[in-house]
Amino acid sequence: MSLAAMLGDIINGLLHKPATQLYPFERPKTAERFRSLLAWDGECCTGCRLCVKDCPTGALELTTIDQKAKRFVMGYRVDLCIFCGQCVASCPFDCLKMTTNQWELASLNREPFTNLFGTEEDKAIALARSSEENTKETDNA
């Protein structure tokens, strides 16, 4: 590289702003159609399970507490989700939405990657049922 070319690069670098962003301090804008974490509205859910059936990775699980009272608990495994949006497209009642602002998903443990949607009472019932099923499976094995 010649001295003139190097001097030109130095002057060019001093006169222009850096092209990088100061990430933690300057958040980049996300695209309007960006797909991030799943959001579930249990009020309009009928328990048809089309979202669970159409999920290609098995990241969704719907537990029925009371079908007539429309009490359900949606289990969402973020670590299995590929953010394809198939569950959102399959839901005939628009109960599922993909958020656009929650894209920082790094964690040191697996706990934040398992989400339960529903009322606190229904979540407790679903967790109790799940633990009973797990103990029955270990007793039978």
Descriptive report:
- With 141 residues, this protein is an alpha+beta fold.
- The protein has a single domain (31-140), classed as Alpha-Beta Plaits, CATH 3.30.70.
- The protein is 31% helix and 17% strand.
- It contains 4 helices and 5 strands; from the N terminus they run αβαββαββα.
- The protein has helices spanning 3-15, 50-54, 86-90, 120-140, and strands at 38-40, 60-66, 71-77, 96-98, 114-117.
- The protein has a 3-stranded antiparallel beta sheet, with helices on one face.
- A hairpin with a 4-residue loop joins strand 2 (60-66) and strand 3.
- It is elongated and about 80 Å long.
Briefly characterize the structure.
The chain has 141 residues and is α+β, with helices and mostly antiparallel strands.
Q: Count all strands and give the number.
A: 5
Average pLDDT = 88
Number of helices: 4
Q: Do you know the CATH architecture?
A: 2-Layer Sandwich
Fold-level CATH name: Alpha-Beta Plaits
CA-based shape: elongated
N- to C-terminal distance: 71 Å
What Rg do the Cα atoms give? 23 Å
Q: Output the helix-strand order.
A: HEHEEHEEH
Reported for the largest beta sheet, the result is: 3 strands, antiparallel
Main-sheet strand order equals: 2-3-5
What is the CATH C level class, in words? Alpha Beta
Structural class: alpha+beta
Q: Fraction of residues in helices? A: 25-40%
Question: What count of structural domains?
Answer: 1
Q: Layout of helices and strands, plus pairs?
A:
Layout: H1 3-15, E1 38-40, H2 50-54, E2 60-66, E3 71-77, H3 86-90, E4 96-98, E5 114-117, H4 120-140
Antiparallel strand pairs: 1-4, 2-3, 3-5
